[in-house]
Write a structure and sequence with these properties.
The chain is α/β, with parallel strands linked by helices. The protein has two domains: 6-44 and 289-381, Aspartate Aminotransferase, domain 1; 47-285, Aspartate Aminotransferase, domain 2. 42% of the residues lie in helices and 14% in strands. The protein contains 14 helices and twelve strands. Strands 2-8-7-6-5-3-4 form a seven-stranded mixed β-sheet, sandwiched between helices. It has a three-stranded antiparallel β-sheet with strand order 9-12-11. Strand 6 (201-205), helix 9 (227-230) and strand 7 (231-236) form a beta-alpha-beta unit. Helix 3 (47-57) packs antiparallel against helix 11 (274-285) and helix 4 runs parallel beside helix 11. It is globular, with a radius of gyration of 21 Å. The N and C termini lie far apart (47 Å). It binds D-malate (MLT). Residues 16, 38-39, 103, 127, 177 line the site of D-malate. D-malate is lined by residues 16, 38-39, 103, 127, 177.
């Protein structure tokens, strides 16, 4: 008789794996599904990045075990990218760590800093891995509600003092998945004060920093004064350069915090394939017009979807960052998503999948062409929503 560990028993199935299953069932029935579910860019990785990978794969030196902390050339490219895009200076030797995608870093960091029973502060709604990583470390995630009334920012004053005192780690993510909210440097500075007061490590997930519209520039957490003393920022090449399948990201900031994460990683993985890291160097140091071009495409899609959803009477605000539209819907989120899938062949993620405070919302990812988005809106017109 196989018995799973308690920590596995208490985990729900991974949100997007569950959605994939439901989607596969509908596709089996022959339905033409419009997938606005997972945040997986539909456009290909830009050719100069693919070419760098092709060149690298022919070099046998790249086929060996990579260095644990990542190639210095990749970490230097990341540090230079940070200086150019965020105006943040980093030492590539010990303030940058290569990740096998930021999901990996997010899942592993609780193992470095949370003892069983310790508290982590996680946003709700939020990317499920903040919560899951904490549970895998036998820690207790405490949910910080992200509410529309507070612009989907956590209310730091509402965190009970006894919880804050027990907390060791706080996860944040702006531009935010799933709400698409943004945060100011002033808010990040309040977080730094809070982290100093309660001796909390801040992990800011910045996966969507480059996906911005209407002239908006998203600040880095490290732009806040004192941020490097208390925290790190996780970055992903997945969304910025359409590289979800390649599994490449990096963490930057406080060298002691990165050393803790690095110690876990050296014991559980052997680093990112160097061929992929060389493609990452091409992405970070090469022409950046591909990012601007993709944002222009997402903006057109955003506007098409918003126009359609508003006509249908849904409460939606135009996001100025991320490729998500967070729509307030009538009734329960799961019922709404189920109806969209079963009656219209549209995959959209129920807000409840991101936590209890996501109830009443559905997330649409802008990962289909304007034509397909218009088709989705047409299909929704025929429903009672
Ligand atoms: C999302 O769609 O929220 C995530 O990016 C999917 C994932 O990383 O698993």
């Amino acid at each position: 008789m196989i018995k799973y560990a308690e920590r596995i028993n208490s985990l729900p199935p991974y949100l997007f794996a569950a959605i994939d299953k439901a989607k596969a069932e509908i596709i089996k029935k022959g339905v033409d599904v419009i997938n606005l579910g997972i945040g997986d860019p539909d456009m290909p990785t830009p050719p100069h990045i693919v070419d760098a990978m092709k060149k690298s794969i022919d070099n046998p030196a790249r086929h060996k075990y990579p260095s644990y902390e990542g190639m210095l050339s990749f970490r230097t490219a990341a540090a230079d990218w940070y200086r150019r895009t965020m105006n943040v200076t980093l030492n590539s030797e010990d303030e940058v760590l290569t990740l096998i995608g930021s999901k990996e870093g997010i899942a592993h960091i609780p193992l470095a800093f949370l003892n069983p029973g310790d508290v982590s502060l996680v946003p709700d709604p939020g990317y499920p891995v903040y919560n899951i990583g904490s549970i895998l470390a036998s820690a207790k995630p405490f949910k910080m509600p992200l509410l529309a009334g507070n612009e989907f920012l956590p209310d730091l004053d509402a965190i009970p003092k006894d919880v804050a005192k027990k907390a060791k780690l706080m996860f944040l993510n702006y531009p935010n998945n799933p709400t698409s909210a943004t945060a100011s440097i002033k808010f990040f500075e309040e977080v730094v004060d809070f982290a100093n007061e309660f001796e909390i490590i801040v992990v800011h997930d910045d996966a969507y920093s480059e996906m911005t519209y209407d002239g908006y520039k998203a600040p880095s957490f490290l732009n806040a004064s004192g941020a490097k003393d208390v925290g790190i920022e996780m970055h992903s090449l997945s969304k910025t350069y359409n590289m979800t399948g390649w599994r490449l990201g990096f963490a930057v900031g406080n060298s002691e915090i990165l050393a803790g994460l690095g110690k876990v990683k050296t014991n559980v993985d052997s680093g990112a394939f160097e061929v992929i890291q060389e493609a990452g160097v091409a992405a970070l140091t090469g022409p950046q017009d591909c990012v601007r071009d993709m944002n222009n495409i997402y903006k057109e899609r955003r506007d098409a979807l918003l126009t359609g959803l508003k006509e249908l009477g849904l409460d939606v605000k135009p996001p100025r960052a991320t490729f998500y539209v967070w729509a307030h819907v009538n009734g329960k989120a799961a019922d709404f998503s189920k109806m969209l899938l079963e009656k219209a062949g549209i995959v959209a993620t129920p807000g409840i999948g991101f936590g209890e405070y996501g109830e009443g919302y559905v997330r649409f990812a802008l990962t289909q062409s304007v034509d397909r988005i218009n088709e989705a809106v047409n299909r929704m017109r025929k429903l009672d929503i």
